[in-house]
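Please decode residue identities from the backbone states below.
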């Protein structure tokens, strides 16, 4: 598909589907239409490995019965016959589902906020020639950065745009459009005895935020610094966690504040509001209205305006994240954190998740550690038990001795409890960095057991 329907056509068929759903017996319905296009290029040692361009468009309809049953169907054929079938399948799924409490449609207004800057014209204007230039520069920068680089296994660039229309039988309707780009470099390095493969990538809604040379150099630095890693002696250490690895932990923590996880008994944050869950230097925020960021939008998947929710303030748990259903269950307002696709019912998810920065530089934090581990990678975070918080994960990094990074460390394991871990954070760096929709600074955590040799 290379052409999309006009906005007027999309609005017309969406409203027709709503009317068909109500005529079919639904008490309420909503329609989500999505379209977009993207292109990507990947070079392997300077030669084209992949070159793709794609277009997509689809529509999903959700029907709701007065007793709380709901059903959904979706497709990418937009002729009248196919659309009628989608409504019929949605009603069929709805009638055969189980009733749930709190199922409703938002009755406010959709208000688009242009100041959120969701689209960068510089990204949508990128040509195939420009993608090739960007990938070649990343390849050349990586090869020239260090003599130990044997191969640039991948230098890749992807960019695209997406647009969506949402409307409901309660009268909501609105369009939102955005763009984004991402790039990455992976390399193989060798010192003659040891070989290591690694890389680095970034994404942004703004073209000028992607420094391709810096990204290539970081990929090289991360890979070369890991060459020849060996286990450190088993024992309790102070660990300094670099921002990207810290962000992966923040993602895990954010999920624990989603209301469905609380209600289903799958979060250690259950019944902990207004109690201490982390050290006083930890403040965690979910904010769906930060201009240019990946998790930003004027409204959530139910049409509720996005906002800023304080999850942890100075170590104290403050709030959970809600959609309409779970907000109704807890007698609170939705935080604007509903998420869904064309083929899924509304759930709850984070938007832009930030562990707020402190005042010290990373160098200052490292210089204060006598013997510890500079942590650059955690493996197996998905195995953290969300109920007990217990975890044991693989780790890589570099040894810190007398305030200086000395040699690479690999083949070690970190075992702890997530709540104990949060309460053991003693310092937060000033280097807040976004990785997609999650941001974190350097963290310092004391008395963490590292199992090595």
């Amino acid at each position: 598909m290379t052409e999309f329907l006009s906005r007027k056509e999309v609005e017309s068929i969406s409203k027709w589907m709503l009317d068909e759903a109500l005529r079919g017996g639904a008490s309420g319905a909503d329609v989500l239409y999505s379209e977009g296009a993207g292109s990507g290029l990947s070079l392997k040692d300077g030669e084209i490995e992949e070159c793709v361009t794609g277009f997509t468009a689809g529509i999903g309809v959700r029907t709701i019965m007065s007793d709380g049953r709901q059903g959904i169907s979706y497709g990418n054929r937009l002729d009248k016959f196919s659309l009628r079938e989608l409504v019929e399948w949605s009603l069929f799924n709805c009638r055969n589902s189980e009733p749930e409490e709190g199922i409703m449609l938002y009755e406010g207004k959709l208000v688009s906020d242009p100041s959120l800057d969701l689209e960068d014209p510089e990204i949508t204007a990128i040509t195939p020639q420009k993608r090739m230039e960007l990938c070649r520069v990343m390849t050349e920068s990586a090869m020239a950065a260090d003599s130990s680089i044997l191969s640039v296994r991948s230098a890749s660039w992807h960019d695209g745009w997406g647009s969506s229309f949402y409307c409901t039988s309660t009268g909501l309707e609105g369009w939102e459009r955005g763009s984004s780009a991402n790039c990455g470099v992976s390399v193989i390095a060798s010192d003659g005895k040891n070989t290591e493969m690694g890389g680095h990538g970034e994404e942004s809604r703004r073209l000028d935020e992607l420094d391709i040379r810096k990204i290539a150099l970081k990929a090289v630095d991360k890979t070369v610094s890991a060459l020849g890693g060996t286990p450190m002696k088993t024992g309790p250490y102070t660990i300094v966690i670099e921002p990207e690895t810290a962000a992966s932990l923040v993602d895990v923590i954010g999920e624990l504040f989603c209301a469905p996880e609380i209600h289903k008994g799958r979060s250690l944050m259950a019944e902990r509001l207004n109690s201490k869950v982390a050290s006083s230097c930890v403040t965690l925020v979910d904010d769906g209205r930060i201009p240019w960021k990946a998790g930003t939008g004027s409204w959530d998947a139910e049409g509720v305006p996005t906002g800023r929710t304080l999850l942890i303030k100075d170590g104290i748990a403050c709030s959970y994240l809600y959609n309409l259903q779970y907000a109704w269950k807890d007698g609170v307002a939705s935080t604007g954190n509903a998420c869904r696709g064309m083929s899924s019912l509304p759930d709850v998810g984070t938007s832009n998740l930030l562990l707020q920065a402190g005042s010290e530089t990373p160098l200052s934090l490292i210089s204060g550690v006598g013997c510890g581990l500079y942590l650059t990678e955690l493996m197996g975070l998905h195995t953290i038990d969300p109920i007990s918080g217990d975890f044991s994960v693989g780790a890589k990094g570099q040894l810190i001795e007398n305030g200086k990074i000395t040699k690479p460390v690999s083949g070690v394991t970190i075992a702890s409890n997530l709540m104990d871990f949060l309460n053991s954070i003693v310092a937060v760096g000033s280097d807040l960095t976004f990785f997609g929709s999650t941001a974190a600074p350097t963290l310092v955590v004391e008395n963490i057991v590292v199992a090595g040799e």
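Observation: The first helix runs from residue 7 to 23.
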